Amino acid sequence: MAHVTRRGVLAGIGLSIPAMTMMTACGGGKKPGGAGSSSELSAWILTGAKEKVFQDSFDRWNEKNPDDKFTTQSFANDAYKEKIRTAVGAGNAPTLILTWGGGTMKDYAANGDIIDLTGKVDGIAGRTIESIMQVAAVDGKQYGVPNNDTQPVFLYYNKDLFEQNKVTPPTTWTELMAAVETFKGAGIIPIALAGSSVWPELMWIEYLADRIGGEGVFQKIEANEKDAWSDPAITSSLEKIVELVDAGAFGDGFGSVTADSGADCALVHTGKAAMLLQGSWNYGTFKQDAPDFVSGGKLGYLTFPTVDGGTGDPANIVGNPNNYWSVSAKADEAVQTKAIEYLNDYNLDDTMVADLVAAGVIPSNTGVEDELAASDDADYLTSAYTMVQNAPHFQLSWDQALESSQSQQLLDSLSQVFLGQLDPAGFVTAMNATIK
């Protein structure tokens, strides 16, 4: 299941995926041998604003289980994706394997890298949103459980820059292009983009394809229908991306901006860029790196603009329904049992929920309305919560929904389009070649 529908969806704002650099964090206990050890509990987590929430959860487990402690290591998003792929392939992954669901989890399940959790995780299942749990199901079996919050993508904007330049927050593509022209004329980067990281560029084609052609466009691609990338909505989306690039929407140096460092967010909160299309996890980054900017009400957020003549539902959203913990099949059975105990008793428990809300995100738990209303970020969280509630379709990020071989070609080809090295027709040809 690569998307979440309105039925059962109640949540949504995200894990701060971007962060600084690869680093390690001690979680107690012995260091595992190599990347992971079959006889010791271990987990890899992502650096950033939510890193401490994860670490505190493992620390609470370690305090109560001194003979069965988790060791942890922390990695920036891009470094993690490379590291975990290598570790799983070599058979020495950590006990708990973090994924975004989708094609990666399907690959792990098919290859016997993670265990079937069906009937073993009723504790965590009983307190989380059912439809989000279902994203981690493969062929009717549960291979993972949510471990943080749902993560839709927003169009963030600097309210001061909009007011100073008399620009109305754009709700249509025409208005967005007009805003680009105004900000460029004022010497301001219209839209920050972490082109060096590449994956942030996906958000543009994902939303454009949905707004122009609807959710069925990608569903055909995901189903490996012949020549599915030839859908006119894909070509139109790419043409609009070229239109943005040619208009100078992203400035001249977007190819050197990184997401892991929070550089795209910094351009917005320092007033160098007016807008940013990024995931809800970036709210945590804004809050961590520029607390006065956030508390002062200077950060705005919108759903993606509509496109004239488009047939997609303007309430649809893209992003990541959640991140998930899976349990390594290479771990000893006793270690697997302890890991499952952690998932049922500590993962997304009341303490972790409170920590996530304090960090400015909505956990994937049911019944969190009161906690959100009492938060310092109540206006943002309630607004985002309502947006996700009202979304008829929540599309998982394409690079996670597709198999790894397809997703890498997608990232490579899309980057070439943004850099002017590949035209829309070349992109379509390259991607149709990945369909099995």
TrEMBL record:
<dbReference type="Pfam" id="PF01547">
    <property type="entry name" value="SBP_bac_1"/>
</dbReference>
<dbReference type="InterPro" id="IPR006059">
    <property type="entry name" value="SBP"/>
</dbReference>
<dbReference type="InterPro" id="IPR050490">
    <property type="entry name" value="Bact_solute-bd_prot1"/>
</dbReference>
<protein>
    <submittedName>
        <fullName>Sugar ABC transporter sugar-binding protein</fullName>
    </submittedName>
</protein>
